[in-house]
Specification:
- The protein is mostly helical.
- 52% of the residues lie in helices and 3% in strands.
- Strands 1-2 form a two-stranded antiparallel ribbon. Strands 3-4 form a two-stranded antiparallel ribbon.
- It starts with 36 loop residues before the first strand and ends in an 8-residue tail after the last helix.
Length: 236
């Protein structure tokens, strides 16, 4: 792949308006040793050190998480549009979602429940793995690639989510594998991310619909008022 050093970059002299600082490192642009470049993804100005193959870090994460966003949209309404910028904001604040911690608590409490009585001497022993208790999330989130190939999903989406949300990385450090397994951790994270995205954009779509309806009603009211308003004769 093309590296930053070998790429044919040209200082951006128009994009970014009056921005005098890099969006990545916040350092001031200098004509000679820190010229301004533009990210080909978002169009914002950056210095060369904050771009990789002419793309900023946030747009790189967006590209890596695009398949997960498509998966999250599988069960959403066909008219719901997932805005990419708002999507990254939702994912970066996933650890502020109470449902995420509730799902981990349900899993760990399910594992702490007492099991059946130990077998008597001579009885056959069958080893069983403990699986999470069924939850509402299972009904709302489609299986898709997450359950069909969880390992590939973790490898493809996990590092990007950890980089986007450092608190998620700290949470993973605190509970894996002491409380939950790696697979269970990411399965819960992916499903909660999908639910959070759907809730965000369903709510946004509802608000936009209410605003459109209000504007339509106001326009009708104004039109009716103009038709019924008496004409005042002018003086000569």
């Amino acid at each position: 792949s093309t590296t930053m050093e070998s790429a044919q970059l040209h200082p951006d002299r128009h994009a970014g308006g009056q921005d005098s600082c890099c969006r990545g490192c916040s350092k001031s642009f200098k004509t000679i040793y820190r010229p301004r470049y533009v990210c080909t993804g978002c169009g914002y100005p950056f210095c060369s050190k904050c771009l990789q193959e002419r793309i900023c870090g946030r747009c790189t994460l967006a590209q890596q998480l695009a398949p997960m966003i498509e998966w999250a949209a599988l069960g959403a309404d066909d008219t719901t549009v997932f805005d990419l910028g708002a999507t990254l904001d939702v994912l970066s604040s996933l650890t502020q979602r109470p449902q995420l911690f509730k799902a981990f608590d349900e899993l760990t409490s399910h594992r702490r429940r007492p099991g059946p009585a130990p077998p008597m001497s001579g009885d056959a022993v069958e080893m069983q793995s403990v699986s999470p208790a069924p939850a509402e999330t299972e009904r709302l989130v489609p299986a898709g690639p997450v359950l069909n190939d969880l390992g590939a999903s973790i490898a493809g989406w996990g590092p990007a989510m950890l980089k986007l949300n450092p608190r998620l990385a700290q949470l993973r450090f605190d509970i894996v594998p002491r409380k939950v397994s790696e697979d269970n951790f990411w399965e819960i994270c992916f499903k909660q991310a999908a639910l959070a995205l759907r809730e965000k954009f369903a709510e946004q779509e509802l608000q936009e619909g209410l605003i459109d309806d209000l504007e339509s009603r106001l326009a009708s009211a104004y039109a009716s008022h103009e038709l019924n308003e008496p004409v005042t004769p002018t003086c000569r």
